[in-house]
Amino acid sequence: MISKYGSNYETAFRETAGSSNSGCNVDDITEKAIGDFGSWQLRISLLMALLKLPMAWYQLNIIFMAPPQDFWCEKPDSLSMYSDDEWRKMCIPHIEEHPCLIFDPQILALSPVIDRSLIPLVECKRFVYNNTLFRRTITSEWNLVCSKHWLVHLTQCIMMWGVLLGGIVFGVIADKYGRRLPLMIAIVMQSVCSYIASFLPWYWWWLGVWFLLALASGGLGIISFVVCMEAVSGKWRTTIPVLYQLPFGFGSAVMACLAYFLRDWRKLEFALATLSSLYILYWFWVPESPRWLLATGQIDKALDVLRKAAIQNGKENDFHNVKHLLPKCKGQKRHDPGFIAFFKFKNMRLKTLLLSANWFFTGLAFYAFSQYLGMIGGNIFLTVAVSGIIYVPGGLVCAFIVTKVGRKTTLWTFQLLTALCFVFILLTPRDVFKSDWPRLLFAAIGFGGLAGSVPALYLYSGEMFPTLGRNAGVGGVTTFARIAAMIAPGVVGLDGLLPDLPLILLAIVSFAQMLLIIPLPETKDYPLPDTLEQAEQFTRKTTQRDQIHDNLKKKSIFGFM
Questions:
Q1: Bridge partners (DSSP) listed for residue 103
Q2: Domain stops at, among 291, 306, 336
Q3: Residue 20: how many CA atoms within 13 Å on its side-chain side?
Q4: Fewest Cβ atoms nearer than 10 Å: which of 273, 327, 342, 391?
Q5: Last residue of some domain: 309, 336, 363?
Q6: How confident is the model at residue 23 (pLDDT cuts 50, 70, 90)?
Q7: What Cα–Cα distance (Å) separates residue 187 from each residue in 193, 353, 456?
Q8: pLDDT tens across 412-431, in order?
């Protein structure tokens, strides 16, 4: 196809779409029928963007469910004559960071001044927790300390594993059965499971419900992004999917405020469940994606959605002018490629692998640095709230840059900014400046860089995959960010081996990401592919040929040729 049309990929794309779909070009029909952006697209975009709030609540609320909490071994009655401070000093070996093993209390009661080297260490039976900051956490309620501390990490791993599977499972369902029904199933699942999780008294039962909640969160993430992307056209397909990501930051800020006032993980979970239940109203507000309906040949349903959208946008005449094109989409053969299908084609295999690696590094940097922020700032509520607020300007700057210079340059810019901030934090000495404000400043800018990278990478990934398979494609590559999130706590824990080792690794990762973008094509100003064949034809060589063609055309216009 490229040889036939030379460097003009868009012409080739349009003819390919027409021939493969019997004259049905989904992009042209939706654009001409309802316009690029109007009241209808604005409403859909806002509704989808608001779903980022609960995604932030559930994917990050482990910060307040299991925050760093001081604890010590409960003082036995036989040593009640000692104060709590005296008891803590006499029972804990200096080599122990946590009071998991203590000197045998029975021997201490008989001879408090005996040489400690002669006293055997025994496991602490019961713990006391400092509830000054948090009245109840999953750590204090289920004693997830010492030999059970790994269950805290398991909780977050289960969340990310559920989000990972939810993106895949709901993505496949949404590609086959439409966007609206699985979206509503995920919303109901999320609300119901959150309510149940706020009451369940048994950890392992609670963890099972937590996994179902994570499945719903992953499904919401992938479906809402695709619906948002398919609703708009033209230049708005660049800015809207980026702005769609901004409420994620507001979500973490809202969660921090609720946690500050409630100070109880069960009350926080109940409050989040109540807010999440409001999204059930989406059943009355969100229609099926007209692009998906056209791509699958469901003309009558597409006609109904497009008519209502055209009326809302004031495009009734435009809708009637393209109405005769709709029958050409009827009965067309469907191709719903799964994620594995993208590995069967040379160009799509390369793009999928590079995007997957980039998402892995992005997820590792985002989630590891989000947890590492708590080590830089002293107030956990303020740190989380500020990091959430910083997420917003990062996304706004991304939306501005990505429309001017394209996707690849935008990603390079934010990834370089993030990497440099990691380096500056490493070079800035601790406890020299008041409140370590230079380190906090670089941390804020670095998190802003991450906030710009995520929406740009979402947009870039969505434009690489075709309409029939976009859910599976985007869901598949973003899966690797969830895998990275599972190992993020382990990366943060490396700080115990070598101070700032996590930052060193994250800086290396951020620099390495920039190299992964080079072989990929620029998608700015190119039509969105509808089929796997169209997506396969679009390569870096294609964009380079088009660039040469455009440059030659400009020279000829200005008399240079």
A1: 121
A2: 336
A3: 19
A4: 327
A5: 336
A6: low
A7: 10, 31, 25
A8: 888 898 889 888 888 877 76
Global pTM? 0.77
Look at the alpha carbons of 547, 553, 554, 556 in this order and tell me if their dihedral is positive or negative: positive
Q: Within this chain, do residues 166 and 280 fall inside the same structural domain, yes or no? A: yes
Residue 57 included in any domain? yes
Strand locations in 373-474 (E): none
CATH number of the domain enclosing 64:
1.20.1250.20
- Lowest-pLDDT range of 203-212, 263-272, 328-337: 328-337
Give CA–CA dist 474/333, Å, rounded.
23
Instruction: List residues bridging with 384 in a β-sheet.
Output: none
Structural domain includes residue 558: no
Residue where the block lists tokens 């670089």: 442
Return the residue matching tokens 């976009």. 470
Determine which helix (DSSP H) or strand (DSSP E) holds 72, and give its type and residue range: strand 71-73
Return d(Cα 129, Cα 142) in angstroms, integer.
12
Asked if pLDDT for residue 469 goes beyond 90, the answer is: no
Domain shared by 251 and 382, yes or no = no
Among 127, 83, 87, which residue's Cα sits nearest to residue 103? 87
Q: Using 50, 70 and 90 to split pLDDT, how confident is the model at 97?
A: low
In this structure, are 391 and 485 located in the same domain?
yes
Asked if residue 557 belongs to a domain, the reply is: no
Q: How far apart are CA 478 and CA 460, in angstroms?
A: 12
Name the DSSP letter for residue 136: B
pLDDT of residue 16: 42
Residue that has been written with the tokens 């005449």 in this structure: 317
The 10 Å Cβ neighbour count of residue 406 is 18
Tokens of 3: 């040889």
Average pLDDT value for residue range 5-13: 43
Containing structural domain, residue 351 = 346-523
Examine the domain organization and report whether 102 and 65 are in the same domain. Answer: no
DSSP string, 264-302: BHHHHHHHHHHHHHGGGGHHHH----HHHHHHTT-HHHH
User: Above pLDDT 70, what percent of the chain?
Assistant: 84
494 and 373 together in one domain: yes
CA distance 95 to 340: 51
pLDDT at site 12: 42
Note the pLDDT tens digit of each residue in 169-204.
Answer: 888 888 888 899 999 999 999 999 999 999 999 999
- Quote the mean pLDDT of the chain: 80
Count up the domains in the chain and report the number.
3
Whether the predicted pLDDT of 434 surpasses 90: no
Q: Is 528 inside any structural domain?
A: no
Question: Can you list the alpha helix ranges (DSSP code H) found in 66-202?
Answer: 84-91, 105-110, 138-142, 150-177, 180-197
Shared-domain flag, residues 176 and 224: yes
Distance CA 537, CA 12 (A): 9
Say which DSSP state 171 is in.
H
The DSSP call for residue 499 is: T
Do residues 542 and 2 lie in contact, with contact meaning Cβ atoms separated by under 8 Å? Answer: yes
Asked if 145 and 263 sit in the same domain, the reply is: yes
Confirm if 71 and 98 have CB atoms less than 8 A apart.
yes
Same domain, 438 and 496: yes
